[in-house]
Write a structure and sequence with these properties.
about 150 residues; mainly beta; 6-stranded antiparallel sheet; 6-stranded mixed sheet; globular
């Protein structure tokens, strides 16, 4: 499968928002919140949490500096975001850390996923493991959100 934001399952179509103005310069694969006319970078779990899609909903198949998943939208650009559903899988930008398979993730600075601490809202689970730099993309599975005990 090419390096697309939505990873599956393939038997269900991912739903997206209508096109909206971005309130800042944001990278695809980061969490945003949906407002009436705009998408704003999320820094914590919030209502209408979405995942910013790539411009054409696909990438060129490589994860280098030229890949559309690594090129930020400009503030004021029009974009769409995925409406998150439990069980769906996506590529998501993460904070710098070492992740383990199945690790509980929350939304952190710059709209990136990070390890959930006690009391944080869990929004996803890591589907891969390893040391990651800030902004690296990993596959996650969306959780049925809950507060981490």
């Amino acid at each position: 499968m090419p390096n697309t934001v939505h990873r599956g399952p393939a038997d269900r179509q991912a739903h997206t928002t209508e096109a909206k103005t971005l309130a800042g310069a944001y990278l695809p694969c980061t969490f945003v919140t949906e407002g009436a006319s705009s998408l704003t970078q999320a820094t914590a779990p919030a209502g209408h949490l979405r995942l910013l899609a790539a411009r054409d909903f696909y990438s060129l198949g490589q994860l280098d500096a030229n890949d559309p998943l690594k090129v930020a939208y400009a503030s004021g650009d029009t974009g769409v975001a995925y409406i998150l559903e439990p069980g769906q899988r996506y590529l998501v930008a993460v904070a710098a850390a070492t992740y383990s398979f199945g690790q509980e993730l929350t939304v952190a600075a710059a709209g990136r996923a990070a390890a959930a601490a006690t009391g944080n809202q869990v929004v996803a689970f890591a589907r891969e493991a390893g040391a990651k730099s800030a902004g690296d993309l990993i596959e996650v599975e969306i959780a049925n959100c809950y507060a981490k005990p």
